[in-house]
Specification:
single chain; alpha+beta; D-amino Acid Aminotransferase, Chain A, domain 1; five-stranded antiparallel beta sheet; 10 helices; 33% helix; 28% strand; globular
Length: 333
């Protein structure tokens, strides 16, 4: 009997909507588990004697009816407003849901995932990413993560008094004006370190600032490569970090990579065990490729819209193949 493809996301996830639409066109059985608070308030979950059953508006499904799994969101996460008003009961509710989900994922650990959740969580660590990238020969900007002020100042001096400051974990915050903000990569100088104290600070991450000709968003789906050249240097808003979107002034084009870098990226994905990744590169005026990071659940729809690269279809095709292979393995003809 055919298995259902399990999509783990939230109700407002347009990427999950896109994949679900293509899978429906391919007549695939789909079950979507949304992890936002509103969806989970209408979801029933039962674990008993190693059997897990989920009930939503789509109906009932058990672990033995699931084939391939695509994860966009693995756990219950809250918006900033929800976190600020969370009660003790709501904290317990969230924690118990997340522990129950861990049990579900363990029960599904032998199923084909894009990508296996433990590897997705491991790959979220940029220090690990940079270590693997260097080991396989990719160029990575010189990097320091430290809370030792003198060490940070020396690093800054070593690279001309100005370096890139970035966070290892992205989140949203409310500033002094009560405006919701996020933090992007910024250039900092020695003057910016004046308020950094000698003790008690958290480690910060600084990198050699690499001059750019352009940037590349490189999406990989099961060994298929989709590259987008982003002309980030044409807009003052995006010169340091293209995520300060200025799409009308930053043309996006599809492109092909150098063969050596392609082989290195294939090796990176193999070592990290990822079936999907959205990688960011800097290309210098001399044509050198510098790896910045890989997001194992990164977004792609805007790239697809601007370039026509068929990333959604490729991801849906991979899920169909994994699901078919697993279904045949479980129910041989």
């Amino acid at each position: 009997m055919p298995k259902s493809i399990l999509i783990i996301a939230d109700t407002a996830d347009t990427h999950a909507d896109a994949i679900e639409s293509v899978l429906k066109d391919k007549n695939q059985l789909i079950y979507r588990l949304n992890l936002d608070k509103e969806a989970l308030s209408k979801t029933s979950f039962s674990y008993r004697d190693n059997n897990t059953t989920i009930y939503t508006h789509q109906g009932r499904i058990t672990t033995c009816e699931i084939g391939a799994i695509w994860v966009r969101k693995g756990f219950v996460e809250l918006s900033l407003e929800e976190r600020e008003s969370e009660t003790i009961d709501e904290i317990i509710w969230r924690n118990e849901w997340n522990r129950s989900l861990l049990g579900l994922y363990h029960a599904l650990s032998q199923h084909p995932w894009i990508s296996p959740l433990p590897l997705v969580i491991k790959a979220d660590n940029k220090l690990y990413q940079w270590s693997v990238a260097r080991e396989i020969g990719l160029k990575v900007p010189a990097t320091l993560t430290s809370n030792i002020k003198q060490e940070i100042e020396d690093f800054c001096n070593l690279y001309g008094g100005q370096v890139a400051f970035k966070l290892l974990h992205q989140d949203i915050y409310r500033n002094e004006q009560q405006k919701v903000v996020g933090f992007y990569t910024n250039k900092i100088s020695l003057d910016d370190l004046a308020q950094f104290t000698e003790t008690g600070e958290n480690p910060i991450t600084v990198q050699q600032y690499i001059e750019k000709a352009y940037e590349v968003r490189w999406t990989i789906v099961s060994s298929r490569h989709f590259l987008c050249r982003i002309e980030s240097q044409l807009s003052d808003s995006t010169k340091v970090d293209w995520r300060r979107y200025d799409l009308p002034r930053t043309p996006h084009y599809s492109m092909e990579p150098p063969e050596l870098v392609r082989l290195q990226v294939d090796k990176l994905m193999e070592v990290m065990g990822l079936e999907y990744g959205a990688l960011d590169f800097i290309v210098t005026p001399l044509g050198e490729w510098y790896f910045l990071e890989v997001n194992s659940i990164g977004q792609w729809l805007w790239i697809e819209d601007l370039t026509g690269l068929p990333i959604t279809t490729a991801l849906a095709d991979s899920l169909c193949l994994l699901n078919q292979t697993y279904s045949l393995k479980e129910n041989p003809v």
